[in-house]
Amino acid sequence: MQLAMTSINEHNREHDLPEVEIGIGVHTGQVVVGNIGSSERTKYGVVGRHVNLTSRIQSYTVGGQILISDATRKEVGPILKIGKQIEVRAKGIEHPLTVFEVLGIGRPYKLFLPQTVDAVVSLAEAIPLTYEVMDAYHLGGEILKGSLTRLSAKGGEVRLETPVPTLSNLKMRLLDKNGGEIPGSLYGKITGLVPKSSTDFLIRFTSVSPEIETLLRGLLSSQAAAGTQRPSATKRKRRRRSAPSDVRALH
Question: Are residues 104 and 26 part of one domain?
Answer without folding.
Answer: yes
